[in-house]
Structure formats: C-alpha cells, structure tokens
Amino acid sequence: MDNFDIQNPMPSRHRDTIRVSNAIIEDIPANQNIRQIRISYSNCTTCPQQQVILNIDRDTLILDERGNRIRPRDLQVGMTIDAIFSSAMTRSMPPQAQAFQIRVVRRPATNEITVGFILDINNRNRSITTVSNRNPASIIQFNTTQDTVILDRNGRNIPFSRLTPGARVRVGHATFMTASIPPQTTAFSIQLL
To answer: What are the b/e assignments for 33-52, b being 16+ CB within 10 Å?
Structure first.
C-alpha cells in the first residue's frame, strides 16, 4: 500500500479523482457484501445536483469532523461530507465509483416534523410524497430506510404497504432537503393520523 503524506494525501495510483465538498449522504443501501453510500452534490451554485453511489472498501479513509478515523457503519443519512472518489464510474443511474476518502463535515441536526396528506406512494423506492395545507409549495418526497418506523393511529408498527394515498400523516424527518423538485429528505418515522 502506498504511503500518505501531508501535502498529497492520495496515493499516486489515485490521481484521477473527483473531489466534492458539502455533499449530502442521501441513502446507505443495505447490502451485506458491499458497503455503499449514495451522495448528492453540486460542483457549483448554478450546476444541477448530481448523485453518485460511492463504494467503500477497507482502503477507503473515513474521517470524522476532527480528523479521527471512523468506521463505515458510523456514517449516517443526512451527514454532510467532503469526498474524494475515482473519476472512473459505471454507466448506471446513478453511477458508482470507488471512494478513496470521506470526511464528515456536519452531522444531521435533530429531526423536524411535517404533517400532511399522502399524494403519492412509490412502492419500488419505498417513498411517499405529501402536501401540507393543500399548498403545492409544501410538497415533499420522503424516502424511507430500513430504520424508518411506520405507525398506525394507535402507535403500533405497521408495514409500508399499509400507507395509502389521501391518508393524513405526521412525518419525523431530517432537516436537510435536496434541491430537487419536489425536495426530498429521509423519513425517520411516519405515523397515520
């Protein structure tokens, strides 16, 4: 393995890289064999937001806000990170690339609450789109993870399949949102009202 130095932290074999700042971890797919994170980022203020899946292996350097090494499992949806990854990517949507370095810039703040009506349900991606106060500007897509808690009116756990369009829900979610239309964020809890 190549040595790292202070002036040039990337080994010489990793010169063809992409560096992004203030990317948001959108998802951490559950896969036992491969560690991955899906991030969204923009290289400039007028550029469209881009997404990439970063493949993490034992050679990926992962650092917290203070520069201490952390494990891949310490990464969380909603974290803001700086990343260095390979410019060689797959042609999939979103593309995949090998992550060389990930540094946590900020952790997600406490969650927020949104109350609204379900407009649409995407069973394939396990997401719901809601509207509050019948205001089109309040439409948000909430993406669920394996850890999202879904509850009925009495506070009992229910499966995602029990959610229906038109249902009134209270969603506990991350404070960050993508710049997409509609904006997207991660749902930590969904309760039928």
So the answer is: eebbbbbbbeeeeeeeeebb
DSSP 19-72: EEEEEEEEE----SS-EEEEEEE-SSTTSPPEEEEEEE-TT-EEE-TTS-B--G
Confidence (pTM): 0.53
Encoded tokens for 113? 């609450």
Task: Indicate the SS3 state at residue 13.
Answer: helix
Do 12-106 and 112-192 agree at the fold level? yes
* pLDDT over threshold 70, residue 5: no
- In angstroms, the CA 12 to CA 4 distance is 9
User: What are φ and ψ of residue 160, in 5° steps?
Assistant: -55, -35
Decide if domain 12-106 falls under CATH 2.40.50.140: yes
pLDDT digits (tens, 9 = 90+) for 119-129: 999 999 899 99
Fold of the CATH domain 112-192: OB fold (Dihydrolipoamide Acetyltransferase, E2P) (2.40.50)
